[in-house]
TrEMBL record:
PANTHER family in the cross-refs: SLL0788 PROTEIN
Superkingdom per UniProt: Bacteria
Protein name per the record: DUF305 domain-containing protein
Residue ranges constituting the DUF305 domain according to the UniProt record: 1-73
Organism: Actinobacteria bacterium BACL15 MAG-120823-bin78
Amino acid sequence: MDGMLSDSQIQQLQDSEGATFDRLFLEGMIAHHEGAITMAQDVIDSDNKEVAGLAAAIIEAQEKEIALMKDLLKRY
């Protein structure tokens, strides 16, 4: 899935602290959320209304969280 951290990125995150940790965490989570949006967009037109509704809710929530995380990143 797009947005998954590689083993080296996870290690880098584990080895970090303070502002560097925060920045790496936010960058990784933004990529992860973008991957979730891509997956949700793939099923947004599902014939199953529950699946389509869940996909729409995921897209809306993840977009809001990405905006928040990008605002937080501006501090670093």
